[in-house]
Amino acid sequence: MKIVFHERYYNSEYAGDPAASPGRLEGIMDVLSRNKEYEIITPTPAIEEDILRAHTKRHLQNIKKNELLFELASLAAGGAILAAKESYIGNPTFAVIRPPGHHASADSCWGFCFFNNISISLLKLYSEGKIKSAFILDFDLHTGDGTINILTNRDDNFRAKILNPSSSGHVNYIKEVESYMQSLKDIDIFVASAGFDQGIEDWGHLLYPADYFELGSLMKIYSEKLCKGRRYALLEGGYNHEVLPKNVESFCQGFK
Question: What pLDDT is attached to residue 67?
Fold first, then answer.
């Protein structure tokens, strides 16, 4: 399994929000880098052509007004593209990137997000003729409105199925995810919008480490059934620095 990471993601000066807070990624990478099952690979920034498949020129120019923000948001999008490409050739991949992306719409953004990393990466594969459809499991506490806005009701032939589970109780939550996956067909790739703020010790107070393992395992099982195991995941939320590494590792163990 591949882990996408760049040392520049440690920079916390691009914004003052919880996703940008110092120390948030260090624990994750400490845990993942010690696991010899994982290979850490380094991305390059997304180019403007990649970004403009998901965003307007006006939005791009607004982000470019802040040089550091543009650098890191482009690098996060590039990390997502690298994860998507690795996934397509059969390597399950988890991208430890920031800023996150699922609240970024074509012409606006909020919620600690600036570029929609998932949309940019999927539309990159689509532009290359590699995929025509995707399933997105968004298990962040907050619904990824930007991803929905960009990837649904499109004028081209790209199709996205998106699930942000809403069940109360962690057992029913997992059942909802599996039930939805059982109904899928004609999917070319799986991607997780992997926010860990739904954790039992995080903002959502819902999911345990074992639940994150189960989510990763379901992604593995159903991607193998439907699309030759093509699957990747991008870090979104998760704000309790003490438990975030454990939850990420649990997901990766199921996902690998």
Answer: 98
